[in-house]
Specification:
alpha+beta
Length: 209
């Protein structure tokens, strides 16, 4: 995918992610969108580092804030089924942290800290042209602003071409919606399918550019 294609993918993914709180969780959600970062993994688990927090909606009384706002990082539990190349499931556990850098009125420090409270789904999507995307989807439980909260996170990788995940790739974009409610499994399936559909459609369009 060329630079313009990646930019288009990131832009539409971002807009889609900002709509997730409207149907993913109950009222009083806080939505965090991230972009980039290196996702590495072995059978011991997946780790995301260096992902930039690019938008926050609903944190405190700030409303919608964009920019270079901080970082998002996580580790999962060990691979429980399937494979890194063809998709599978990782065990609950690990860590999940969102840090602010003081920009846009956000605190300079930890905004959310928790861990995966259920299995993490690692899904392979093979597009019509034989290239691949992967989507990571999971439920997270932790603390935000002194309160115990629940979240759903969806992370989409860049297109890996016709090769499969080889232990390291880049995140195209992701979204984490945090609420005091618990996301339902059917909601996770809907979110994952939606992002996979967007990734496939944009891939086809950008290949024509």
């Amino acid at each position: 995918m060329n630079c313009s294609g990646r930019g288009l993918l990131a832009a539409v993914l971002f807009l889609f992610c900002m709509m997730l709180p409207n149907f993913a969780l109950a009222d009083n959600t806080t939505d965090f969108s991230n972009s980039g970062g290196t996702l590495t993994g072995t059978s011991a688990g997946l780790t995301l580092t260096g992902s930039t927090l690019i938008a926050v909606n609903g944190y405190g009384n700030l409303g919608f804030v964009t920019g270079n706002l901080g970082t998002l990082a996580f580790t999962t539990g060990a691979l429980a089924s399937g494979s890194l190349q063809m998709g599978g499931t990782f065990a609950a556990g690990g860590t999940f942290t969102i840090d602010g850098n003081g920009t846009g009125g956000l605190p300079n420090g930890v905004l959310f800290s928790g861990s995966f409270s259920g299995p993490v789904t690692w899904t392979l999507a093979t597009l019509a042209n034989g290239t691949h995307n992967y989507t990571l989807t999971g439920v997270v439980t932790g603390m935000m602003g002194g309160s115990s909260v629940n979240a759903v996170t969806v992370q989409l990788t860049i297109n890996t071409g016709k090769g499969f995940f080889n232990g390291s790739t880049t995140i195209s974009g992701g979204d984490t919606s945090i609420s005091t409610s618990v996301p339902e499994p059917s909601t996770l399936a809907l979110l994952g399918a939606g992002i996979l559909g967007i990734g496939g459609t944009l891939r086809k369009k950008t290949l024509k550019l």
